[in-house]
Amino acid sequence: MHVKTFKGSDTQAALAMVKAELGDDAIILNTKTVRSGGGKSCEITAAVDPKARNAGGNGNGSPRRDPGGFAAMEDSNPADWACEWRQIKDHLMALVKPQMNMDDLAPRQRVALKYLEREEVDTQVMLKVFLDLKADQDRPILPVLESVAPCYGFGSKKWLQKIHIFAGPHGAGKTSCLVRLALREKQLKPKSRICVVASDEGQGKGRLVLRHYADLSGLAFREAGNAEEMVELLKETAKFDMILVDLPGLSGKATLAERLADLGLDDCRDMAAHLVLAPYFSASQYAEIARRYGCPQLKSLIWTKLDEACTFGALLNMARLTELPVSALSYGPGLKNSITPAVSEMLWRLIFKHTLPGALAERN
């Protein structure tokens, strides 16, 4: 956003200066009268979005148009279009929501839907659940929700790949999650050969954590922050039963697909990427994460820091947004006994009763 202040003899003169320099798209931020020794003058602060001006090709701030009359789109930023589309969907959902007549549902279905709303489940998920329940008033809600957020526990037959990439935003808990799963696998299968990999060219502290716990727990440790080092690692795959790669958060406008391509993993078939998330980001942040991390190699969601959240609607919202299953649930500050493969019962107890997976495991 370009902001500038214009000073004229009166309001009309100042507005003329704004229009001449910033065009018709200028937004007036502030207008005030300034008194000086020479009398009164008008001072206007205005702003304009440079992207909107650059899109114009006829010199007056309006968009270029092709012969068919459509605005030129070749120079548009995909992120801007994604933001606009999210806004359009939000407006459509705002119109649809009042049409969801709860009286069309059975009392127990109505109670469950209202609870999901309190858990901050978004309107698109609510609409799907409402329509499925409305079609059959005897239908329980859990099978409907399982179609939105299926669970395939990490370590089950669903995950037969040898290489597992742990990706996600900075601070989501990727390194801790990787260490927890590695220790869990080693405890269940003491003879398994597990390698943990730091894929951080910046030599961050996550690398030191991985090396420390690898030395303590009898895990192999490797570094592969670029394509050359990753090639050397792939040559060793026969030595290991499982390779867990800690991928640092993406910087700038980079995407997961680009990062995997830089590492030479875009064509690796014996690999699954898992998106590690905490349950307390904003809706717009989740949408941006889904856009930047979405790629064919991304196979599941792993939720961390569950003990720090007060609502859990994000688990359903992100599952709907990415169309990915949940593979693991992480909770508590410790590294041992603080992560578990995801199962549906744990997920629904977490959402409807706020029962952490650890409490359920202890009871069983």
Question: Would you give an account of this structure?
Answer:
The chain is of the alpha/beta class and 364 residues long. It is 41% helix and 18% strand. The chain has 14 helices and 11 strands. The chain has helices spanning 11-22, 50-54, 78-96, 107-118, 123-135, 141-148, 174-188, 205-217, 227-234, 256-262, 283-293, 313-322, 344-353, 357-363, and strands at 2-8, 27-36, 39-48, 163-167, 194-198, 220-223, 242-246, 271-277, 298-303, 326-330, 339-341. Strands 6-5-7-4-8-9-10-11 form an 8-stranded mixed beta sheet, with helices on both faces. Helix 5 crosses helix 6. The N and C termini lie far apart (57 Å). 32% of the residues are buried. Residues 57-76 have low confidence and may be disordered.
Q: Give the C-alpha Rg.
A: 26 Å
Relative helix content: 40-55%
Taking the sheet with the most strands, its summary is: 8 strands, mixed
Shape by Cα distribution: globular
Helix and strand content put the structural class at alpha/beta
Mean pLDDT figure: 84
Work out the number of β strands: 11
Number of helices: 14
Low-pLDDT parts are 57-76
Q: Distance between termini?
A: 57 Å
Order of helices and strands: EHEEHHHHHEHEHEHEHEHEHEEHH
Strand order, largest beta sheet? 6-5-7-4-8-9-10-11
Give the strand content. Answer: 15-25%
